[in-house]
Design goal:
alpha/beta; nine-stranded mixed beta sheet; about 425 residues; single chain; binds zinc ion; Urease, subunit C, domain 1; 14 helices; 2 domains; about 40% helix; TIM Barrel; globular
């Protein structure tokens, strides 16, 4: 089998967390990592393709653990508003006009942006999930796909049936880069009976739940009034966490909430930019990590961020943790990098497959150039990836063993066509 050899780079396997291999080599065989170590490594075999990574970092791809990728179409459409007003007055009315074609082109725009920024897996929740799945297949990225369930819609029953059917179909086909989930939007948009049915269905199908949780103070206050419990405690009482769950935000948490999330191994997804832009607050990430909760990192949708740049998200998450707590040691660079890779992978239930460079794991690898002026001199590569790097520094991206970007050129997607089609869709939505 022809192999890929990434030679001479500084390798960050992220397993163990603090390992750095100067002048390292990573060998990919098929869709898996076959070898990680110092140069020269095993002998070159006929047919091996060599990628010179001198002056670059070779590391696991970033995992964007929460987004609504097709919301790239609404990027910059509504800024500087509070979450509820933003949803009800701007986002939901525009989304009422969505077609599967809009979702497809919006997804391709977001996926192209993510690949160019070193993201190799994303976890999505949106309307017309089949269109997102098509975009995942076309692009070569790895995607967790779920249709968003809003319990107040008159079509909720149809949506549920369709969501379950989609998961069953995807499970049967077992595409290596498509991971289905079920996604009730939030505890406050889905009645208890629906939440329970979705959790039960997810359990039976062997997939995760993906649900926004404890995002705003308002949500917590309403939950206390209506259920006499915080949103986290409420879901715990309903038995929802018996099913493995991914929960973006988790901004407003009590000590008991943190205990529940850690004990239930809920994949908390920290979305610092979105939470600050919508003034929702700042998640108690340091306390969650102390409690040994599973914590990943996500950008949320491009309408509340306003990009899908995970390198920027790491920087924002790290510096705001310090500014918010008054403690400059809060969330250091290695913790942040772990959150954006292994942490996110674990939150999605993929911790044994992606998020580290280790023989036997899926070959999701990025090559980040250290050549830029803003990256020199190089005292520490982990510090540079979190605090100095930009999305544009990502040079090559390999997903499931297949190169999808080489020397900043996308190999699977036509950028000009995507930009044109996405712009057509976007202008119709806001007209
Ligand atoms: Zn979201």
């Amino acid at each position: 089998m022809a192999r890929l050899r990434l030679e001479h780079g500084t390798v960050l396997p992220l397993d163990p967390a603090d390992a750095v291999i100067h002048r390292g080599i990573v060998i990919v065989e098929g869709n898996r990592i076959a070898y990680v170590g110092p140069m020269p490594g095993p002998a070159v075999e006929p047919g091996d393709q060599i990628i010179d990574t001198s002056g670059c970092v070779v590391m696991p791809g970033l995992v964007n653990a929460h987004t609504h990728v097709s919301m790239t179409l609404l990027r910059g459409y509504a800024d500087d508003m509070a979450l509820q007003e933003w949803l009800e007055r701007k986002i939901w009315p525009a989304e009422m006009k969505l077609t599967p074609e809009d979702v497809y082109w919006g997804a391709l725009l977001g996926i192209a942006e993510m690949i160019r920024g070193g993201v190799t897996t994303f976890n999505d929740m949106y309307h017309y999930p089949r269109a997102v799945a098509d975009a995942v297949q076309k692009s070569g990225i790895r995607g967790c796909i779920s249709g968003v369930m809003l319990g107040m819609l008159p079509t909720a029953e149809d949506l549920l049936r369709d969501a379950i059917e989609l998961v069953s179909q995807m499970k049967v086909k077992a595409h290596p880069r498509l991971i289905p989930m079920l996604a009730p939007h939030a505890p406050y948009t889905c009645p208890d009976s629906l939440l329970k049915r979705m959790a039960q269905a997810a359990g039976e199908l062997g997939v995760r739940l993906h649900i926004h949780l404890a995002e705003t103070r308002h949500e917590v206050e309403d939950s206390l009034k209506e259920h006499g419990a915080t949103p986290v405690r409420h879901l715990e009482r309903l038995g929802i966490f018996e099913t493995p769950t991914v929960a973006p935000h988790c901004v407003h948490l009590t000590d008991e909430d943190i205990e529940i999330l850690a004990h239930r191994r809920v994949g908390v997804v920290h979305c610092p930019t979105s939470n600050m832009k919508l003034a929702s607050g700042f998640a108690p990430v340091a306390r969650l990590l102390e409690a040994r909760a599973v914590v990943g990192l996500g950008t949320d949708g491009a309408a509340s961020n306003n990009n899908l740049d995970m390198i920027e998200e790491m920087m924002v998450g790290a510096v705001v943790a310090k500014g918010h707590s008054g403690d400059p040691t809060a969330i250091n660079a290695p913790q942040m990098l772990a959150m954006a890779t292994r942490g996110s992978a674990e939150a999605l239930g993929l911790g044994d497959q992606i998020g580290a460079l280790k023989p036997g794991m899926r070959a999701d690898i990025i090559v980040v150039s250290l050549h830029g002026l803003h990256m020199q001199p190089v005292h520490g590569v982990v510090s540079h990836i979190v605090y100095a790097a930009r999305a544009d520094d990502v040079r090559d991206v390999i997903i499931d063993g297949e190169p999808v970007m080489r020397d900043r050129t996308l190999l699977t997607l036509d950028e000009a066509e995507i930009v044109e089609r996405a712009n057509e869709c976007a202008s119709r939505l806001v007209r």
